[in-house]
Write a structure and sequence with these properties.
This protein is an alpha/beta fold. It has 8 helices and 8 strands. Strands 4-3-2-1-5-8 form a 6-stranded parallel sheet. It has a two-stranded antiparallel sheet with strand order 6-7. A hairpin with a 2-residue loop joins strand 6 and strand 7. Helix 3 packs parallel to helix 4 and helix 4 crosses helix 8.
């Protein structure tokens, strides 16, 4: 079971949590400052070196940069279809590299109110990276649906530990206490599969394959002129249509 911690307001909850229920704890960018009990720090090429944790790291800790996450991302179809922001990149890296049965997200809701346009965060100031103009991020909800579908194909469920009233992630909401239940993993996987229309998933994947967008370097922003925004939006809509309404009864 893997925990991924981002930078949304409630990410700081992890500071007071017993994280022993998670086999691996993955932090994104500045989130290493929240807890010393992290195993992997995933960060992009443009992350300021002065914001990295001081060295030496603990023997159990490892930095994950583009040379590690780009090949994993490509194995799941590449950045153009997955969405070029670190929450999704980290999710795909964890899915491929760690092969968990559960991925739990905290602090990755990608919701920014008008008062936080300057990017006030626990670490100081940042910017709302997922909300930038980017052809791969036209629908954050669709991209979360795609990640959930890919995880399901690898017998992994994805959930959201956020207690915030709004999230762009379509993953089911659970609590940390829920995950401590030994029987919850099979329940989560079944509930996830009930949400997925497999025919719809296959249609979306085929549309991706037919369009054929792949930038193996991971630097998709160097090729945006080659991408058809409308066709990518159509694929997003296919992913959204592949999600059934929840039936928790």
């Amino acid at each position: 079971m893997v925990l991924i911690i981002g930078s949304a307001p409630d990410a700081v909850l992890a500071k007071d949590w017993d994280l022993s229920v998670f086999t691996r704890r993955v932090v994104i960018n500045n989130a290493w400052q929240i807890t010393p009990d992290w195993d992997y720090l995933v960060y992009p090429e443009d992350f300021p070196p002065e914001r990295l944790p001081p060295t030496p790291l603990k023997p159990s800790q490892q930095l994950i940069a583009a040379p590690e996450f780009v090949p994993q991302q490509n194995s799941f179809g590449g950045f153009v279809y997955a969405g070029g922001t670190m929450a999704f990149t980290t999710g795909y890296w964890a899915l491929g590299a760690l092969k968990p049965d559960v991925i739990a997200f905290l602090g990755c809701d990608m919701v920014y109110d008008a008062a936080s346009d300057n990017g006030s965060h626990f670490y100081g100031h940042g910017t709302a990276d997922p909300l930038r103009v980017d052809v791969t991020l036209q629908s954050l909800e669709a991209k979360s649906m795609r990640l959930m579908s890919m995880a399901d194909a690898h017998h992994c469920s994805v959930v959201n530990l956020s207690a915030l009233p709004e999230s762009r992630l379509l993953f089911p909401r659970v609590t940390r206490q829920d995950l401590a239940d030994p029987g919850v993993r099979q329940h989560l996987l079944k509930r996830q599969r009930d949400r997925l229309d497999q025919a719809g998933v296959a249609t979306a994947l085929q549309a991706e394959q037919d369009l054929g967008y792949m930038v193996s370097s991971g630097r998709y922003w160097e090729h945006t002129a080659e991408f058809d925004k409308t066709k990518l939006s159509e694929i997003d809509n296919l992913w959204l249509k592949a999600m059934r309404e929840p039936n928790d009864a």
